[in-house]
Design a protein that fits this description.
Length: 133
């Protein structure tokens, strides 16, 4: 009996929530407690994500509300900030709800956003190519 193929989740083809992108949109410019909106294509569906960002609290967070295939979802993501090693400002990180790891990119999996280690065997497309080609 043949073995069923197992294909790894590809990080560069998975929807991502990225600190760099949020920073470019001014989310971390000053302490805020406001709602902003993101648009993202997930599972072939263009969705609107309501993003409540609170960096005023002692424990900053982002709360994402969105709907996929008519089902509502709510993702709570804690934030951490650390002083820059250059002594210029602070560096923001997401805290993964499953692994507890700090990261700059969260990947969409199982209808929520997680650190890449939560996926098991996640790879980049370049890692799946043969070294002989």
């Amino acid at each position: 009996m043949p073995k069923y193929p197992t294909f790894p989740q590809l990080a560069d083809r998975t929807p991502q929530l990225n600190i760099k992108t949020l920073k470019e949109h001014g989310v971390f410019d000053k302490p805020i407690d406001e709602v902003q909106y993101l648009y993202m294509t997930i599972k072939g569906e263009r969705i609107k994500i309501e993003m409540h960002v609170n960096t005023l609290d002692e424990m900053p967070y982002i709360n994402l509300k969105y709907e996929l295939k008519g089902e509502p979802y709510n993702s709570w993501i804690d934030l951490e900030e650390y002083p820059s090693n250059l002594g210029k400002g602070k560096i923001w990180y997401f805290v993964c709800g499953i692994t507890g790891k700090d990261c700059r990119i969260l990947y969409f999996y199982d209808n929520h956003f997680y650190h890449r280690d939560a996926f098991g065997k996640m790879m980049y497309s370049s890692q799946t190519k043969s070294s002989f080609s």
